[in-house]
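[#protein-structures] MJ: dropping Lipase-like isoform X1 here for a structure pass
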Amino acid sequence: MEQKSWLILAIFTCLIASSCGREMHVKNKDNHAVYNHTLATILVEYASAVYMSDLTELFTWTCERCNGLTEGFEVIEIIVDIQNCLQAFVGVAKNLNAIVIAFRGTQEHSIQNWVEDLFWKQLDLNYPGMPDAMVHHGFYTAYHNTTIRPGILNSIKEAKEFYGDLDIMVTGHSMGGAMASFCALDLSVNHEAKNVQVITFGQPRIGNAAFASYYGKLVPNTIRVTNDHDIVPHLPPYYSYFPQKTYHHFPREVWLYNLGVESLVYRVEKVCDGSGEDPTCSRSVTGNSIADHLNYYGVDLMCQQWRSCRIVMDPRVSEYGKTDHKGNFILSRDPATLVLKSNMRSTEGEVTSSA
Ligand SMILES: *[C@@H]1O[C@H](CO)[C@@H](O)[C@H](O)[C@H]1NC(C)=O
Ligand SMILES: *[C@@H]1O[C@H](CO)[C@@H](O)[C@H](O)[C@H]1NC(C)=O
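AK: finished. structure tokens for Lipase-like isoform X1:
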């Protein structure tokens, strides 16, 4: 599209957005994904909280990121896969009337190294049961072949037994967004979950075009938020000359960017087309920013410190915990019982591990 008409379109989008306050809802004809700004700003807080390493505060939902729009969240389970340095939680958000599942992004020593690695990820695994669908083995196994999947399936079961048939919302940032996608697909395909809703933030590509097309049909209620020049959604690279061989995002992208018109700068939230690779969205700019990767909607998405995988916990929460023979750890509670929040603190009994 021409620069000028593109500008007009973008300004028009702003006007629509501001005319209905902070809400911007756009209905799409060809699938069910409806972008809900309010919901995105709620889920991004869960995607941020799952980075916290103090399991006591996370379990009791008293961490410094455990407030605001997520207040009152009831954690049912926290899963820490020490071997692979992964973390996720499942809980019930009564204000959303939903089970929320959040996956942490990578916690390597340096985000730069992790990002550089993404350039070289191969499409090296056939997604089971979907002819021609290829994904990256590492992303797939992070969800499917670790303690994460059984932990999540079990806590969804428990939550449903206690709370009834709630909707399921899955979220995650970066690598956590990749895991969230695999989880949502698994729930939809293998566990007959209905109403699975996904919002990921700055996730990388995870499969090829055939995979993206299955995914779009099976988990239509998916929004993939990308922020301005965030580098990660550009990776692993998309090669338009090799449509069958290249990675391909699934729909539906929502691209956040700043539009400067002289001294006025608007924040635009652009709902992209149903292709997954809308050339007028994040692909219209160079992905060259790590800073844009680490903050979405003004919310920090990273651990407090880039360091080896580490968890901290009060010995009194360990009565809710189980450790398997490989040292992986699951904290869970019966939804019917309340966790006593008073006087639990993680000053003693540090559990430190490195992966
Ligand atoms: C958007 O999400 C919020 C939070 O879940 C909800 O209260 C609101 O009704 C949703 N809006 C629409 C139009 O679905
Ligand atoms: C997952 O683990 C099982 C058992 O360890 C193994 O047989 C299987 O090949 C693994 N799958 C992938 C995709 O790595």
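MJ: nice. Residues 125, 140-141, 145 surround 2-acetamido-2-deoxy-beta-D-glucopyranose (ligand 2) (CB under 6 Å).
AK: one more thing. DSSP finds eight helices and 18 strands in the chain.
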